[in-house]
Each structure stands twice: as C-alpha cells, then as structure tokens.
Write a structure and sequence with these properties.
Blueprint: E1 5-11, H1 18-28, H2 37-42, H3 49-59, H4 66-82, E2 85-92, H5 94-98, H6 104-115, H7 118-122, E3 125-133, H8 138-147, E4 157-161, H9 173-181, E5 185-190, H10 196-204, E6 210-213, H11 221-229, E7 233-236, H12 238-243, H13 255-260, E8 264-267, H14 272-275, H15 279-290, H16 294-306, H17 314-326
This protein binds adenine and zinc ion.
Length: 329
C-alpha cells in the first residue's frame, strides 16, 4: 500500500496521456501532427517551461466535449489513487479552452462529472482550482472570472500559471482582489523560472495562501525566513523541475535543503503525462535520488494534507492525517 498523500499541484490538462489523446482525437475528428503515441512521446524533450507549454497547449485540441473532460479527470483519478493520492486539488486552464471555442460550462461541468464520482469510485476527495494564464492579459483574466460565476459552487480557488518570466504577479492584482471578494482561495505559480521577487509579490499583492513551485525562494534567505515563519506551503514538483531544466538533475534538487530550512514543502506531479511520473512516482524518485528517510517522506505526506484546502471538512483532514501517522513503510 502506498503512502497516503494529497496532490496540490496538478494541471488536469497535463495528465493527458498519449493513448487517451489519440482516442479523443479519433472521437472528435481531430488530426494530431504525430503519427502515433511513440512519435508523440518522442516530442517530450523540453529545454524550458515554454517549450513544454507549446506542446501542452497544442495537445488540448483533442478536448472538445464534456465527456472528454470527464474521461480525462477519471483517468487521472484512477492513476492517482493507485499511487496513494487520497485528496487532489486540481488545476484547470479555462482560457486555453475558451480560445478554442469550448465553453466554460463544457469544461467545468465535464470535469465535475469526473470528480463527483471520485470519492466513491477511487476513494479520492477533490477540489477544483481555476488558473489564469499569466501570458494573457489582466482583462482576459477578469473576463474569465466573470464567465466562471455560474460555476463558483464547484470551484474552490484560483491560481496563476503558464509562462512566468515577464509576467509578474502584480499584473493580476485586480482579478485576485475580485476572486477574494467572491470567497475563493488563492494560489499562484511563482519562483519556478521567475525570480524570488515574484514569490514575495504573490504573497504581498495577490494574497496567496500557497506558492506553487517556489523553488527559487532559496536565493533569498529573508524570504525563506518569512515562508517558514508564516508556514506558507510550497507545492514542489521534482520530476517537472528536472524535465523543464529548472534543476540540472534530481540529485541536485534543493528539496532536502528546503526541508532542513523548515519550509512547509509538499511533493506533487504538475503535468505527470509529460514529466515521467504521477505523485507516487515523484515520492519514489526523491526518496531514491535524494536519500530521504521514512520520516522525511511522512513529513511530506503530512504537509500535503496540512496545506490542502480542507478547512470545509476538518474531519476528513484529520482522518487522512491519522492514515499518514499510522502508515508502515
Ligand atoms: N501549466 C502547466 N504546467 C505548468 C508549469 N509547470 N508552470 C507553469 N504553467 C504550467
Ligand atoms: Zn504547475
């Protein structure tokens, strides 16, 4: 039995495995510019975040109907459950779908169809987090939040993703203020490729409660001290960092130093179909390459539930935390 864990940094569009991509392409009459799944997997060589994002957005062309989004979510939840994920807070990128003529209702209701049976079928509780694309305009983000208003009962929070450098958090001040006023939780990618200043800005200007990645905080000791003091969770994605060249090799990942510094680190998969592993694979890889102890792994799992947005169900959080403490390696 795998270690129970929560996954807090997971882009549902990044769980599109080549086999499902070709199945959806056939179902929807979409032609992919790859001969087969092997040829597509060959394209999984990235120099940085942008080279990955180009393929990530290209592959979304196969997602057209509610059923597609439901199938995508269900496939992810089955795989995640098999790797010990008990709770998943799932990002989605509506602007990437709206731009292709797929409506907000199709996306959210389709994902919900997958999520609503997750607890019963997979034993995984779920939340949805709607991300704004930071390389789109602030006005587009505000319009997107407006379009999401009929579905806010299904959405727990907002996030910020896509190309980071050159798109600082401050650009999204207004939409985060509007989201907060609507009672939405707030997270943002910061310090993946962007500088530590973007992490500080995400905290100060956007009021985020968790930082996605946050890797580059290690360049700023005062920022590390603040993140430790305020117990701000970081959702790290080790295999993603290797594939997108944010670190040279997994053995050089700063996770052990971050844990030693007292940061509230969690381990997640980001875009598992593209980066070579789901949540459990990330735990296994850091254990092997970074020589983490059983205690360190238990701490990561405990952190994942502490950092989750389960304030609306503290009983469930307590049950998950008890499972972590009782786990025998
Ligand atoms: N969208 C999907 N994966 C992402 C990542 N790792 N960083 C920023 N945006 C993303
Ligand atoms: Zn991400």
């Amino acid at each position: 039995m795998p270690l129970p864990k929560a996954e807090l940094h997971l882009h549902i569009e990044g769980t599109l495995e080549p086999e499902l991509a070709f199945e959806l392409a056939a179902r929807n009459g979409v032609t992919l510019p790859y001969a087969d799944t092997d040829a597509l997997r060959e394209a999984y060589r990235f120099d940085d975040l942008q080279t990955f994002l180009d393929l990530y957005y290209e592959m979304m062309a196969v997602l057209r109907t509610e059923r597609d989004f439901a199938d995508l979510a269900d496939a992810y939840l089955a795989r995640a459950a098999a790797q010990g994920v008990r709770h998943a807070e799932i990002f989605f990128d509506p602007q990437a779908h709206l731009a292709r003529g797929v409506s907000m209702g199709t996306v959210v209701e389709g994902l919900w169809r997958g999520l609503e049976r997750s607890q019963d079928e997979h034993g995984v509780s779920t939340r949805l987090i709607m991300c704004f694309l930071r390389d789109e305009s602030a006005e587009s983000a505000l319009r997107t939040l407006d379009e999401a208003k009929p579905y806010l009962h299904l959405i727990t929070g907002v996030g910020l993703d896509s190309a980071e450098v050159g798109h600082p958090p401050v650009k999204f001040r207004a939409v985060y203020e509007a989201a907060a006023a609507l009672g939405l939780r707030r997270v943002a990618h910061a310090g993946e490729e962007g500088p530590p200043e973007y992490i500080t800005e995400a905290l100060d200007v956007l009021g985020v409660e968790r930082v996605d990645h946050g890797l580059r905080c290690m360049e700023d000791p005062a920022l590390v001290a603040r993140l430790v003091r305020d117990r701000v969770p970081l959702t790290l994605c080790p295999l993603s960092n290797v594939r997108l060249c944010a670190v040279d090799a997994l053995a050089e990942h700063p996770l052990p130093a971050m844990l030693d510094a007292g940061l509230l680190c969690t381990v997640n998969s980001d875009d598992p179909a593209y980066f070579g592993g789901y949540a459990g694979d990330n735990y296994t890889a850091v254990r092997r390459e970074l020589h983490l102890t059983d205690d360190a792994l238990r701490r990561l799992a405990r952190n994942s539930f502490l950092a989750s947005f389960l304030e609306d169900d503290e009983e469930l959080r307590a049950r998950y935390l008890a499972e972590v403490e009782a786990y025998e390696f």
